[in-house]
Amino acid sequence: MGELLGATSYLISGVAPALRSLVAVLGSWGVQLATVLGRLSRSTAPARRAPARAPGPDAFARSPRSPDLSLVDVGYAYGPGAAPVIDGLSLDLPAGSHLTVVGPSGAGKSTLTTLLAGLAAPDDGRLTLGGVPVTEVDRAWLHREVTLIPQEAYVFTGTVRDNLRYLTPRARDADLLASAEAVGARALVDRLGGLDAPVGLDGPPLSSGERQLVALARAHVSPASVVLLDEACCHLDPAAEERAERAFAARGTTLVVVAHRISSALRAPRVLVLDGERTAIGTHAQLLGESPLYADLVGHWVAAGTP
User: Fold this and answer.
1) What's the number of domains the chain is made of?
2) Rounded CA separation 276/268 (Å)
3) Of 300, 298, 271, 224, which is closest to residue 109 (Cα–Cα)?
4) Based on the domain organization, do 166 and 255 belong to the same domain?
5) Fewer Cβ close by (within 10 Å): the C or N end of the chain?
6) Nearby residues of 118 by Cβ (< 8 Å), 6 or more positions away
7) What's the Cα-to-Cα distance from 148 to each of 16, 80, 160, 202, 275, rounded to whole Å?
8) Is residue 234, in this structure, part of any structural domain at all?
9) Does residue 127 sit in helix, strand or coil?
10) How many Cα atoms sit within 13 Å of 17 on the Cβ side?
11) 167-195 b/e with 16+ CB inside 10 Å = b?
């Protein structure tokens, strides 16, 4: 069984680059296919220590009463015998919280957002949404209430409206335009020719930053109460990034931002520094004095001129 799971995981990860290219061609069906296969690759990964099991189709699924997030001694590793990427992490995120996550490459920042989105289950500890273990949360509730925007933003072939409505098929045009305005994408929508304008293979090429604006507007118009931005603004300038982050914070959404710039940390009431055994959480001012890694990161950002 272990060999079969390993072979399946290898096959799926091997075709992932091709799937990313197919998304633009297949439109919304391509996005759904990539999402399903991505989740399949996680569910068929080689067994880790004491892995939590996701509910089967007949399992009792529960809808949380709130989007409060809680992690208690959570651990996660990528494979058997591997050192945990996240180890013993405890964290409370009440509804409406705003948290920025920083740390060196490989510290587990993206892994954390994947866990918070319910796309993977912790190996150890307990992760709950509204008091419900993430493995027991109703999938429909999870997909509606939690949105993860990765660094690589997708714009599929169709119209601007098709792209913005992807998470909210019944959204009115006025709502689409209001969200585009809120996150700073309205000028892009107008330049493209409005909501009926073609994008993807049928439209003009979009820069990485423009694709990120589309993804941000798509998430903003959705009903999600938890938004996870995994360097989702890294191709935007500092002013555009600030506008997008403030737009999500203003709607009362729980906002978790994997930081690309020091300014994201300065905007958040709390900052989480992922640093293995020296992981720390606090305000910007507290961490400057308590976390050597955070002080080093801030110094690096300042020296590099990253606002």
Assistant:
1) 2
2) 22
3) 271
4) yes
5) N
6) 129, 134, 137, 142, 146
7) 18, 27, 20, 26, 22
8) yes
9) strand
10) 2
11) bbeebeeeebbebbebbbbbebbeebeeb
Q: Is 286 within a domain?
A: yes
* Predicted confidence (pLDDT) per residue in 207-254, tens digit: 999 999 999 999 999 999 999 999 999 999 999 999 999 999 999 999
What residues form DSSP beta bridges with 158? 199
Q: Is 74 exposed, middle or buried (0-12, 13-18, 19+ CB in 10 A)?
A: buried
Residue 54 lies inside a defined structural domain of this protein: no
Residue type, 255: L
Structural domain harbouring 121: 62-303
H/E stretch holding 216:
helix 208-221
> What does the pLDDT look like over 107-122, one tens digit per residue?
999 999 999 999 999 9
- 267 within some domain: yes
The CATH number assigned to the domain holding 268 equals: 3.40.50.300
